[in-house]
Amino acid sequence: MGLAIVAGLTGFSTSSQAASRITIPAPQNHVLYASLGDTARAPIGWIEFCSENAADCKGGATQARDIVMTQTAWKDLVRVNRWVNENVKPMTDMEHWGVVEKWSYPTDGYGDCEDYVLMKRKMLIDAGWPREALLVTVVRDRKGEGHAVLTVKSDKGEFVLDNQNEDVVAWTDTGYRFVKRQSQTDPNVWVSLGDNRPAAVTAASN
What percent of the chain has pLDDT over 90? Predict the structure, then answer.
């Protein structure tokens, strides 16, 4: 199955009636933003992905940008998250490609957690959202396993698009331990998120 990764937002499956009932959640404890730490290493698979998709990994310093989280923007996030989650079927990289870790667009309809993230990021960028507000993020999930999600930086806080959750939630509501993510000012620079416990974290299949 070929997926239209450059599709506009109008084609998603969430009905306008259901979307009209969506409200923007307030983060727990009013903690809007994660704490940024030092520069970190890129996750395993990112450099190889960029070598195959150079146009999607253009480096160079840019100005950090947060989106204004309007009701329309929120509905678009929910639609993108659900559409990708519903149209991509989970498959580990070993099953899919015969390797432990490979980042790629799930154009054949299959992928693991980072592939969902890349699809959501691309669809939003193609729809006009600023890359600087769409950050690939590595976390430890509730089982303590490596996992990838998409963090959206906004004036109302940081929200997470996740293939393990059909809802878009505030980062504080995920139950995850946040490890590192892309810098807002350069997609090829990664920064830690304040957790210094030693761990070799990769975006494992989920």
Answer: 73
